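ARCHIVE CARD
CATEGORY: sequence design from structure
SOURCE FIELD: tokenized fold
FIELD CONTENT:
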């Protein structure tokens, strides 16, 4: 990767295995602190991942997770470091893919584990004795977001889920037998909780779509002990600057798929007036932008700025996003980008049917995966969008890292159409409308190569567009006045083209 120096450009090298390419060879060792010696765990070298390792309470057995290259089968090995014995005690499989195995809690009996799995179509909590079938502790058409803490002494599991509403994230508690479930938060908003080490207390970061975070300390039974920060000053600032509220909505596409979204209207909105619409999209696998939480970045203030200039801002979570189970999230398997773009195009068509939307002025923008979807939706939309802006986009999944990409698309050698059928580079010739491409040349996540390839294809097709590159800036394009410059650039493009 070229870094633009003072006199001569410099070459920066780092390890970045792309889709279908070889990974580093990994071996697992245990170091004996007393004897100061390393010993190797006897695993056959395979094309696989070892995503996690945990010690059991006995400090003799090392639990090693082994994930196959396609990331749809996870074996949990019990490795006795004293005698070298090794055996599989638990296997999790999925016909699509397995999410990163972060929620595994090995119990003090040295023979059982509490974990989450999507094996029944929704992410739920299970308890399993080694070598036996897991027992499901939570069940229903809702998603357990994660295990927040476990009180091993009282045999209680604290977890977050969207059981109250797909837009929400609440804290619940349930016992080791899957009984006595109780909600500990209010069922109307988004709660990010952090427990102390023995699970007797937790801090809650609570917000809603229109209320910024309130940080508070609670006992494990949910009782409020202390409000750390209520952000009252920030709420006053929002009122001072005339922030308009988000509104949730849903609609059903021509394919019969119900999609959820939020909409931000000008504060002086009039239903008999026609407004231009800017759609924001991220849309990556397992993401959720439409939720009852305060927007996680400064973009919310920027959207208010656009609304004050007469624009409606909309975000819709299409297929592939989280919160609605495997069937909705994993339909994108082996064809990532296909249904996501279809759903954004369907959203634009739905918005055009509303009597207060100017059907000739609908645009779309996004960053990273959202930049990818913005370009793909514009190119495949056949004139649906008047304009699009892509910031730091993937334009060909062959250029992205293998551990992420192959989880959803398999290897390009085995699924070439899954890569090519939804690459913006192969549809550059179909560009209609105004297009802005922005990228940092020092992006070590979505490599600058993605934009260079798209530029090549746009030029080859004789298409006119705008591009802007930030020298040596990484995927987040920040530092100094860079962000102000970027959002001024984006705003000016919107005002000019939408």
């Amino acid at each position: 990767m070229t870094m633009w120096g003072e006199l001569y450009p410099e070459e920066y090298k780092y390890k970045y295995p792309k889709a279908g390419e070889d990974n580093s060879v990994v071996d697992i060792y245990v170091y004996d602190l007393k004897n100061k010696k390393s010993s190797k765990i006897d695993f056959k070298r395979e094309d696989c991942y070892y995503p996690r390792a945990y010690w059991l309470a006995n400090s003799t057995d090392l639990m090693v997770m082994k994930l196959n290259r396609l990331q749809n089968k996870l074996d949990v090995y019990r490795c006795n470091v004293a005698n070298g014995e090794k055996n599989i005690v638990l296997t999790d499989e999925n016909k699509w893919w397995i999410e990163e195995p972060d929620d595994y809690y090995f119990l003090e009996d040295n023979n059982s584990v509490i974990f989450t799995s999507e094996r029944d179509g929704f992410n739920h909590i299970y308890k399993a004795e080694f070598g036996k079938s897991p027992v499901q502790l939570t069940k229903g058409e809702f998603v357990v977001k994660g295990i927040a803490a476990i009180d091993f002494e009282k045999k209680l599991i604290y977890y977050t889920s969207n059981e109250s509403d797909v837009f929400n994230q609440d804290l619940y508690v349930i016992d080791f037998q899957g009984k006595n479930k109780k909600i500990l938060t209010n069922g109307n908003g988004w709660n990010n909780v952090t427990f102390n080490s023995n699970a007797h207390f937790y801090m809650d970061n609570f917000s809603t779509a229109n209320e910024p975070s309130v940080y508070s300390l609670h006992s494990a039974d949910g009782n409020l002990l202390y409000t750390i920060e209520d952000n009252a000053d920030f709420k006053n600032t929002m009122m001072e600057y005339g922030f308009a509220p988000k509104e949730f909505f849903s609609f059903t596409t021509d394919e019969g798929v119900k999609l959820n979204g939020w909409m931000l209207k000008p504060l002086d909105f009039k239903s008999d007036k026609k407004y231009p619409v800017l759609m924001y999209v991220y849309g990556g696998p397992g993401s959720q932008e439409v939720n009852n939480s305060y927007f996680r970045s400064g973009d919310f203030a920027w959207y208010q700025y656009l609304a004050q200039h007469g624009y409606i801002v909309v975000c819709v979570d299409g297929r592939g996003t989280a919160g609605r189970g495997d069937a909705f999230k994993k339909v994108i398997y082996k064809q990532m980008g296909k249904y996501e773009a279809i759903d954004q195009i369907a959203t634009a068509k739905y918005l055009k049917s509303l009597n207060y939307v100017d059907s000739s002025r609908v645009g779309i923008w996004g960053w990273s995966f959202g930049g990818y979807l913005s370009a793909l939706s514009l190119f495949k939309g056949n004139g649906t969008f008047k304009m699009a802006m892509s910031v730091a986009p993937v334009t060909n999944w062959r250029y992205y890292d293998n551990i992420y990409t192959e989880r959803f698309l398999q290897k390009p050698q085995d699924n070439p159409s899954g890569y090519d059928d939804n690459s913006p580079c192969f549809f550059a010739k179909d560009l209609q409308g105004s297009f802005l491409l922005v990228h940092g040349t020092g992006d070590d996540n979505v490599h600058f190569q993605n934009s260079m390839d798209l530029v090549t294809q746009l030029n080859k097709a004789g298409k006119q567009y705008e591009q802007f590159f930030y020298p040596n800036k990484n995927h987040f394009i920040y530092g100094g006045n860079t962000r102000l410059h970027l959002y001024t650039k984006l705003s000016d493009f919107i005002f000019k083209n939408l």
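CARD ANNOTATION: The longest strand covers residues 357-367. The mean pLDDT is 97.
SHELF: design records, drawer C
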